Amino acid sequence: MANPPRRPTNPMAAAEAAFKPIKKPAAPVRETAAPNVRELVSIRIDRAVLDYFQADGSGWQDRINDALRATVQKRIAAENDRPDDIT
I want to staple 60 with a disulfide (CB 3.0 to 4.6 A). Which of 15, 49, 53, 71 is the partner? Predict the structure, then answer.
C-alpha cells in the first residue's frame, strides 16, 4: 500500500494561496492630546519673523504660540459669524 503524500496538493488551492490579496494594516489610531498640552513640532519660519520674536529675549516660542493661537481664534470667530446661507 502506497503512503499518501504528506501534504495533499491541490494546484488551484496552492495558486489561490500564493496570490491571496494582502490585507492592508489598519491605520494606527492617533490618541487625542490632552487639552493645553504642548506638542514638539518642527516648522520653517522666515528669518525676519524669527528675528522679530527673538528680539525681546527669552520666551520667544511662547510669543509665537500666542500669536498663532490669536490668529486661530480670530478665524474660528469669523467662521462662526458667517451666515449659514451664503448666496
Answer: 53
Closest CA to 53 of 34, 43, 40: 43
Cell numbers at 33, concatenated: 492630546
Lowest mean pLDDT among 16-20, 63-67, 81-85: 81-85
Q: Identify whether the C-beta of residue 63 lies closer than 8 Å to the C-beta of residue 53.
A: yes
Q: Tell me the C-alpha distance between 51 and 24, whole Å.
A: 46
CA distance 87 to 25: 44
Characterize 12-39 residue by residue with b for buried, 16 or more Cβ atoms within 10 angstroms of its Cβ, and e for exposed: eeeeeeeeeeeeeeeeeeeeeeeeeeee
Q: How far apart are CA 84 and CA 81, in angstroms?
A: 9
- pTM for this predicted structure: 0.54
